[in-house]
């Protein structure tokens, strides 16, 4: 659609009560944004509706940032197939769209005889998931590949293809491309009620006024069960499973070369140590089943437990400085698989239970949802090209603007550093504030540029960033 879709986070919805969309996708996490982007290939009127005032404000902003191959998924599940396909699709898309990805590979480390004995079974499971390149390596090779590993590691399963990825840029790339290709993005727009007439339209009540949809997609993450209930559907209950993580300073980066995974247990993938695409090292996550869907705080107990685990995996790591701690909530549903359901009678698709692999699976999930919408009766019309996107370079392994002499010569704003910890320039901040999906606040600016994400956590650059927000962020409310 020429000119792109509307982006707004305040005031009445454009079109008011008469706004009728072919498809409304509710929830602009990585999953909803991927679905909206997939729908944007067709001549359809599509809206992406989000309660928060930015995209990726839920679980999608607080995860472990690994692009999984799906080697350890339960074979034959929907999740196994979609993570595997998603890894392939997102690896290709990341290169095209400028999403930072580093294919460092994983080492699944055995620390005792029981875990050692489990490695061949894990290799066989990987093969059943179509991943035939895993290899068991002995203690000597493991130590050559990871010299800072703690004492007592017996062997490891090497898993090529497991990669580091920037989760923030991924969600933003999907949202940006969706909007450029015609999708309306309604932020600050919680859906509070849905009235569905037989054969007619869904009428949605939102925080910004009413809108109508022929087909509806629930991509509400932690709230997918509550959204289902608005349509009278009661299939599952979401139990938030919290994952707390520690981010170590960039000085620790040389201590770790691969994603260091434990042999998985009943509560999931377990605690890992991994580099990040921003040049830090992550330790986490915990796995705690809670009742509170807003409990994204960290706890002294949780972080102390992580340090204990980290001290065993890479002892030198825990002596390094911690840059930040955060927590995310997985949308667990008591079933070790996704809960993706088409309900043709309601012209409604639920995309639920996307627990710990949704970032990796996102592009494949979106294609799967197109199929479910077709089962519901959606006729998309002919497929067309999406408007291409090229995202800002915020990964450490890629030339950053402050180091790019040609960029600085073209525009001196790329030579003026405003965030000294992360080397973020005035030009990058300015461009983020004027982007297709601009940030609503400093936290959103951090996810787009890394400004304020470093050692001082914004203590030094916050006033300058606020001033730039004032200067360039006037259009951040709406476009
Ligand atoms: C600790 C942790 C580590 C993880 N590590 C990885 C990893 O390494 N690799 C990987 O692939 N995956 C990982 N995951 C999983 C991944 O982060 C999730 O699967 C993914 O982010 C889920 O995205 P989503 O879009 O479904 O949900 P969310 O990102 O939560 O998005 C849902 C959105 O719906 C909105 N919403 C809800 N209700 C309404 C309503 N009524 N009206 C409007 N909007 C609404 C919310 O505001 C929210 O923005 C991890 C998760 C956690 C918690």
Automatic annotation (TrEMBL):
Residues 417-471 form the BFD-like [2Fe-2S]-binding domain. InterPro entries: BFD-like_2Fe2S-bd_dom, BFD-like_2Fe2S-bd_dom_sf, FAD-dep_OxRdtase, FAD/NAD-bd_sf, G3P_Oxidase/Oxidoreductase. This is FAD-dependent oxidoreductase. Pfam families: DAO, Fer2_BFD. Coiled coil: none annotated. Residues 22-369 form the FAD dependent oxidoreductase domain. SUPFAM superfamilies: FAD-linked reductases, C-terminal domain (SSF54373), FAD/NAD(P)-binding domain (SSF51905). Signal peptide: none annotated. It comes from the Bacteria.
């Amino acid at each position: 659609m020429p000119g792109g879709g509307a982006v707004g986070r305040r005031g009445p919805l454009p079109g008011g009560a008469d706004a009728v969309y072919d498809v409304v996708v509710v929830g602009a996490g990585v999953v909803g944004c991927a679905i909206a982007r997939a729908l944007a290939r067709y001549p359809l009127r599509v809206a992406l509706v989000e309660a928060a005032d930015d995209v990726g404000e839920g679980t999608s902003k607080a995860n472990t940032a690994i692009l999984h191959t799906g080697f350890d998924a339960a074979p034959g599940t929907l999740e196994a197939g979609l993570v595997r396909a998603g890894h392939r699709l997102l690896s290709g898309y990341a290169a095209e769209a400028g999403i930072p990805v580093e294919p460092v590979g994983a080492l699944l480390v055995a620390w005792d005889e029981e875990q050692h004995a489990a490695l061949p079974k894990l290799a066989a499971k990987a093969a059943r998931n179509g991943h035939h390149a895993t290899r068991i390596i002995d203690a000597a090779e493991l130590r050559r590949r990871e010299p800072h590993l703690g004492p007592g590691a017996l062997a490891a399963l090497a898993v090529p293809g497991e990669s580091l990825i920037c989760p923030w840029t991924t969600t933003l790339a999907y949202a940006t491309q969706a909007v450029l290709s015609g999708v309306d993005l309604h932020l600050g727009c919680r859906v509070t009620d849905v009235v569905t007439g037989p054969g007619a339209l869904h009428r949605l009540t939102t925080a910004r006024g009413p809108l109508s949809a022929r087909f509806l997609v629930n991509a509400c993450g932690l709230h997918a069960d509550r959204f289902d209930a608005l349509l009278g559907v009661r299939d599952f209950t979401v139990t938030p499973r919290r994952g707390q993580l520690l981010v170590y300073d960039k000085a620790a980066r040389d201590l770790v070369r691969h994603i260091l995974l434990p042999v998985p247990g009943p509560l999931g993938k377990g605690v890992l140590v991994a580099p990040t695409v921003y040049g830090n090292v992550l330790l986490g996550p915990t796995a705690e089943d809670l009742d509170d869907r807003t409990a994204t705080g960290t706890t002294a107990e949780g972080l102390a437990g992580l340090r204990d685990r980290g001290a065993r995996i890479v002892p030198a790591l825990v002596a390094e400085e911690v840059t930040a701690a955060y927590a995310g909530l997985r949308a667990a549903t008591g079933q070790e698989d996704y809960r993706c359901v088409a309900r043709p009678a309601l012209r409604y698709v639920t995309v639920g239970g996307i627990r710990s692999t949704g970032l990796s699976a996102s592009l494949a999930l979106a294609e799967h949802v197109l199929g479910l919408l077709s089962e519901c009766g959606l006729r998309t019309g002919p497929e067309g090209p999406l408007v291409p996107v090229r995202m800002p370079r915020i990964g450490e392994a890629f030339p950053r603007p402050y180091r790019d002499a040609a960029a600085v010569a073209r525009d001196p704003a790329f030579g003026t550093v405003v965030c000294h910890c992360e080397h973020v320039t005035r030009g990058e901040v300015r461009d983020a504030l004027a982007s297709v999906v601009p940030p609503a606040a400093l936290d959103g600016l951090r996810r787009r540029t890394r400004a304020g994400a470093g050692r001082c956590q914004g203590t030094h650059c916050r006033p300058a960033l606020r001033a730039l927000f004032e200067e360039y962020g006037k259009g951040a409310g709406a476009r």
